[in-house]
Automatic annotation (TrEMBL):
Its cofactor is Zn(2+). InterPro entries: MlrC, MlrC_C, MlrC_N. Transmembrane segments: none annotated. This is Microcystinase C. It comes from Phreatobacter cathodiphilus. Belongs to the peptidase M81 family. The lineage of its organism: Bacteria, Pseudomonadati, Pseudomonadota, Alphaproteobacteria, Hyphomicrobiales. Keywords: Hydrolase, Metal-binding, Metalloprotease, Protease. GO terms for molecular function: metal ion binding; metallopeptidase activity. Involved in peptidolytic degradation of cyclic heptapeptide hepatotoxin microcystin (MC). One of its GO terms (biological process) is proteolysis. Residues 2-289 form the Microcystin LR degradation protein MlrC N-terminal domain.
């Protein structure tokens, strides 16, 4: 048995001013055949990581293709997407014949001229391998589950958890189901329900924690192979953006349709109940400062300026408010400013300088913040962990402005692992208040430290107040913009 695997992935915020070029992939992940790390997967390469071990255990031949990933931002350039896509397709063609293909993709990738990159990639892969080859795909739940890609793949599995701490378990399931399909032990058939909505589903809180358990409770019995809640990625203006439920059964299409409909209707009934309050930043700060922090810092999340959603992470609104109020023992992390980081490295730990911080990318970045700073620490070529994965954050620098510590990075990234602090010799648990530029992924590492967590609205193209986005291409009606939006089975 011969199986080919590769990865091409990013999450595209079509409202972001930051272009995604080939350089964006080269500085995040560009691993050619055999170059993928052996110790840890990245966010979208778990199928390759798992298949390596399974191939050694089960005796099939694994042919590795290239793996590409870029931090979320604006659309990928046409030349970059086509270059990466065609490199993988050439590798696949050279590997033929194969019985299976395993692809790690994000699911919300948009390039100039391609609003469904995953669908385009699958169409070209299917044309090469033919109708009998089994194609399996692992996706982030913040994807656009288009009818095209569901029709072209044999099985698609999404991460269930948000933060995405289950990328490897889901890849294990994918590899297992693909192998069973190749061996003709199962015959996956898809059912897809469109919930007609956009929502935020952090699975560390109810009712979402229970819904994840409910998804899993159906799998492995009564012919149900897999259940995925597709959260959707609301920061993209593409036609099939939104929340959907994808069910695979072993040849039992009517049962799959019924289950997808049932779960989709349950999600619709939870409209307005799945997300924590999205407070104005000033209100979030008031509540955080009043919180009992004896057991750990209060945390304010800043989703709108979250690099993980395609924002710059260089907005200074929260920093400005903290300093203006004279808040003590607080930290903001990570604020993307390569120039400020370079200046701090030039001065070194213990140095002082007048620094212009942030506010550089676009009007959504707000104004830069000018202050006299003490450089607390600097570190070069750093990484942060995210579950079993690890990602680069570039050079780090921490400065102190009054009672506020600002952690800055040279490689744009959201707050994921505690290494943002520990690589600088700082202890995140020692602060009374942490303002983290992230929507939810910070919870995996920082949640256990927190006394309370607040979600705030600042400025940036990853706003959770979706009515601020100027959508022109998404299918309507769609809740919450359209109260009457209904759900329906579409496959």
């Amino acid at each position: 048995m011969r199986i080919f695997t590769a990865s091409i992935a990013t999450e595209t915020n079509t409202f972001s001013p930051i272009p995604t070029s080939m350089e964006s992939y080269l500085t995040s992940l560009a691993a050619r055949p055999g170059e993928h790390p052996t110790d840890k997967p990245t966010l979208c390469t778990a199928p390759l990581f798992v298949a390596r071990r399974r191939a050694a255990q089960e005796g099939f031949t694994l042919i590795e293709g290239s793996c590409f990933f870029a931090q979320p931002a604006g659309p990928t350039t046409k030349v970059a997407y086509e270059t990466m896509r065609d490199e993988i397709l050439v590798q696949l063609e050279a590997a033929l014949p194969v019985e299976g293909v395993l692809l790690g993709m994000h699911g919300a990738m948009v390039a100039d001229g391609y609003e469904d990159c995953e669908g385009d990639m699958l169409e070209r892969v299917r044309a090469l391998v033919g109708p009998d080859c089994v194609i399996g795909v692992e996706l982030d739940p913040h994807n656009h589950m288009t009818l095209k890609r569901v029709g072209l793949a044999d099985i698609i599995i999404c991460f269930k958890e948000y933060p995405h701490v289950d990328i490897v378990p889901r890849a294990e399931e994918l590899v297992t189901l693909v192998l069973k399909t190749i061996r003709k032990e199962i015959r996956p058939v898809a059912s897809l329900y469109d919930c007609g909505m956009i929502a935020f589903f952090p699975t560390t809180s109810e009712p979402n924690t229970s819904f994840v358990a409910r998804q899993k409770s159906f799998e492995g019995r009564d012919g149900v192979l897999s259940v995925s809640l597709v959260h959707g990625f609301p920061h993209a203006d593409v036609p099939e953006m939104g929340t959907r439920v994808l069910v695979y059964t072993d040849g039992a299409k009517p049962a799959g349709d019924a289950l997808a409909t049932r779960l989709g209707e349950e999600i619709i009934a939870l409209r307005g109940k799945t997300a924590p309050p999205n407070l104005d930043f000033a209100e979030a700060l008031d509540q955080a400062l009043a919180a009992d922090t004896a057991k750990g810092p209060a945390i304010i999340a800043e989703p709108a300026d979250n690099a993980g959603g395609g924002s710059a992470s260089d907005n200074t609104m929260s920093l400005r408010e903290l300093v203006a109020r004279g808040v003590e023992n607080a930290a903001v992390a990570p604020l993307w400013d390569p120039m400020a980081v370079a200046f701090c490295h030039a001065v070194g730990a213990g140095g002082r300088l007048r620094l212009r911080i942030g506010g550089k990318t676009s009007e959504l970045s707000g104004d830069p913040f000018d202050a006299d700073c003490e450089v607390l620490a600097v570190a070069k070529d750093c990484h942060q962990s995210f579950g079993e994965a690890k990602g680069p954050v570039g050079d780090l620098a921490a400065v102190k402005i009054g009672g506020v510590t600002v952690v800055m990075n040279s490689n744009r990234a959201q707050a994921l692992g505690r290494e943002l602090f520990t690589e600088l010799g700082l202890d995140p648990s020692s602060y009374k208040l942490l303002v983290l530029k992230s929507a939810q992924h910070f919870m995996a590492a920082y949640g256990p430290l927190a006394s309370q967590v607040f979600y705030s609205e600042t400025q940036g193209p990853s706003t959770q107040r979706y009515e601020k986005h100027h959508y022109t291409r998404i299918a309507r009606p769609k809740w919450p913009m359209d109260a009457e939006a209904a759900g329906r089975l579409i496959l």
